[in-house]
Amino acid sequence: MTKRMNCTVGSFAAIFLILPLFFSCGSVPKEIPEMTSQELIQNGQTNFENGNYKAALAYYNTAVERFSDWANVYIEARYEIGHVFMKQKKYNLAEPIFNELLDIYKNSTPGTYPAAYKKLAEIELAKIPHKKAE
Question: Are 82 and 97 in contact (CB under 8 A)?
Fold first, then answer.
C-alpha cells in the first residue's frame, strides 16, 4: 500500500512540475520589446518550432510592422506568416500572402531580393488544395 501511495504521490508531483511548461510554451507576449529584425524572426521561428503559432505570428507581424521599409525583412517575415498559416491549414490566409510575394518578385529586377523566398512561396502555393468545380 505504501509503495502504491508513493507512486501516486510521485505521479501527481510530476504532473504539477510539468504542467506549467505547457502553459508557458503557449503564451503570447503582450508587448514585444525592441529587438532587431533578425531577433524578431528568430523568436518567431523558435515559437513556430515549439508549436506556439500565436506567438510566432506575433513576432513575425511585429517584424513586418517595425521594419516595413526593409524589403528583405518584409519578404522573410511575410513568408514565415504564410508558412504558419500553411501549418495550421488556413490556406485561405496563406494563399494571398504567397501570391503577394510572387508579385513583389515579378515586379522587381532579378537579383534584388533573395531568390529563396520566391521558390519557397511557389512550393507552398503548390501544396494548397483547391476545390474542384462540381
Answer: yes
Domain ranges of the chain: 32-127
- The tens digit of pLDDT for each residue in 85-119 reads 999 999 999 999 999 999 999 999 999 999 999 99
Q: Which residues contact 56 (CB under 8 A, 6 or more apart)?
A: 44, 45, 47, 48, 80, 84
Write down the pLDDT at residue 73. 97
The CATH number that domain 32-127 falls under is: 1.25.40.10
pLDDT at residue 26 in the model? 61
Quick one: pLDDT at residue 28?
Answer: 85
The label of the residue with cell 504567397 reads: 98
